[in-house]
Specification:
With 511 residues, this protein is mainly α. It has 21 helices and no strands.
């Protein structure tokens, strides 16, 4: 069981890694050409609005509702394809309606998301124009993400993981070859082009697996599987809206430049990928593979294996995320300097983005833990509990962000989100153990202490090397990050960290 789980997790991580590498190349180009300009801030706001609805009928529906139910049919492909077809047909119709409504009410959404832009009529007008175009992306990406649920249930994880790379590829090609001709609208054109590519890739993979889409709208509500999904959906909608509202609130607060400084919206945008990198590379990989088996165990009422897989998965989260957090805390400024500090991304942009990354890093482990815990609830077919906790956490996030943004500027907004995540994680963990019973952490406690100590030492050593070395910044970072990995894994080997020894045996077995 655990070998297959680990293999599938590596496949998701590989696909996600390809996408993230291209994503960083995309951000480098965007930062170089646009810095923290009004054009970029208009694009960021316009792109986040359809992403709110994408979260509800895209990843929200696929990860929390469709995948857990479709995974129950992993041994019966005919039932799986029938239920998957009806799910895609329903989501396609819902996405089309939302897309059209978004185009009509674009101005209202911009007023809601970025009230600070009303003080700049040019920026506000540009954001509205961008929003009307980006809403077409919602239809393409929503269908694409929902098709992932069928692929996950077939235990085909690589294609869903690598598909986002095509959006980043569209940005890279567009920015390199067409920016001089289409500068004001190049970002929007890249989004739409990437959305079309992201829809084609998984549908081609489904076709190869034998899936044929059939347009039979009359039968969709007769499908008991879809009816079960729709019953679970309202609570998931609340949870998605609450989560997206936290993003919207961060953006809205950052739009008040007279308090947090000019370019704060862009600073949040540029810092977010560094937080999402470990989440996408490791936590999404673990969560999306785990939810398939966890859903199956739940159907079989096999809570023993459910708990065993949970503990194994969480041990890997601890091992992967805590050292990354330490490196971010000690090297937030140097990382942003190396990757983004050039062209239109100036000293002011660097200072704001570094502060955001530092304060977001304080909550990185909890952001990651929340993602995994929520997926465990979804595997139990419980969408209500995460929704309730998310709403309370949202209210706490608002209070903390407003309170902290005055002394800490845009960094306070990030710190408010991190502190709210601590509460969210703690409460979810408590409620999950009430559902599945006590977990055996006896073997994990000593490992956790070792990992925390070694991670802090690794972070300190990384900062010392950065300050001590006299190379240019690119060579320094090329030396510091591998050195940090060697320090952590080397000390982890002698300290008896289990995952390091697992990794050693896996590498030696490959040779």
């Amino acid at each position: 069981m655990l070998k297959k789980f680990t293999r599938n997790t590596y496949l998701v991580g590989l696909g996600t890694g390809i996408s993230m590498i291209l994503g960083f190349l995309r951000d480098i180009l965007v930062a170089n050409f646009f810095g923290t300009s009004a054009i970029l801030e208009a694009f960021i706001v316009s792109f986040r609005i359809p992403n709110l609805f994408r979260s509800i009928l895209g990843e929200g529906f696929s990860d929390s509702v469709a995948t857990p139910i479709l995974s129950e049919y992993q041994d019966d492909r005919q039932k799986l394809f029938k239920a998957g077809n009806n799910m895609l047909l329903f989501s396609g119709m819902a996405l089309l309606v939302l897309t059209l409504l978004g185009i009509v009410f674009a101005e209202f959404f911009v007023r809601l998301l970025a009230p600070g832009f009303l003080n700049d009529p040019t920026k506000f007008s540009l954001t509205v124009s961008y929003t009307r175009i980006t809403f077409s992306y919602l239809f393409f990406i929503g269908l694409s993400v929902n098709s992932f649920a069928i692929l996950y249930s077939l235990k085909r994880f690589f294609i869903p993981a690598v598909t986002p790379a095509f959006l980043n590829l569209a940005f890279i090609i567009g920015l390199l070859f067409f920016i001089k001709v289409l500068k004001d609208y190049i970002l929007i054109i890249c989004v739409v082009s990437g959305g079309v590519l992201q829809l084609l890739i998984p549908f081609l993979a489904l076709k190869r697996a034998g899936f044929i889409f059939k347009f039979k709208p009359a039968q969709i509500f007769r499908d008991s599987s879809l009816v079960r999904m729709l019953k679970l959906m309202p609570a998931r909608v609340i949870s998605s809206i609450a989560y997206q509202l936290s993003v919207i609130i961060d953006t809205a607060l950052a739009s008040f430049s007279q308090i947090v400084g000019n370019g704060a919206v862009a600073a949040l945008f540029f810092a977010n990928p560094y937080i999402h990198l470990p989440m996408a590379l490791f936590i999404h990989s673990i969560s999306r593979v785990a939810v398939v088996d966890l859903s199956y165990y739940q159907k079989q009422n096999n809570l023993s294996d459910f708990r065993k897989l949970f503990v194994f998965s969480f041990q890997n989260i601890i091992f992967l995320i805590i050292p990354i957090t330490a490196v971010y805390l000690f090297l937030s400024g140097p990382i942003i300097e190396v990757v983004l500090y050039r062209g239109g991304f100036d000293l002011h942009s660097w200072q704001m983005t570094s502060a955001v990354l530092f304060f977001y890093s304080l909550g990185l482990f909890f952001f990651c833990g929340i993602k995994f815990l929520v997926n465990c609830f979804y595997a139990l077919k419980d969408t209500k509990t995460p929704a309730k906790v998310t709403v309370v956490s949202l209210l706490l996030n608002i209070i903390l962000s407003v309170w902290l943004m005055y002394p800490l500027k845009v960094g306070g907004i990030a710190l408010g989100s991190s502190l709210a995540a601590v509460f969210n994680f703690s409460f979810l963990y408590y409620l999950l153990t009430k559902k599945i019973g006590p977990l055996d952490w006896q073997d994990t406690k000593s490992q956790l202490i070792k990992i925390i100590i070694l991670s802090l030492l690794t972070g300190l050593a990384s900062r010392f090397l950065w300050d001590f070395l006299v190379f240019n910044k690119y060579l320094k970072m090329a030396a510091v990050l591998p050195a940090a990995a060697v320090i952590f894994f080397g000390s982890g080997y002698f300290a008896g960290i289990k995952q390091v020894h697992y990794l050693k045996r896996w590498i030696l077995a490959k040779k």
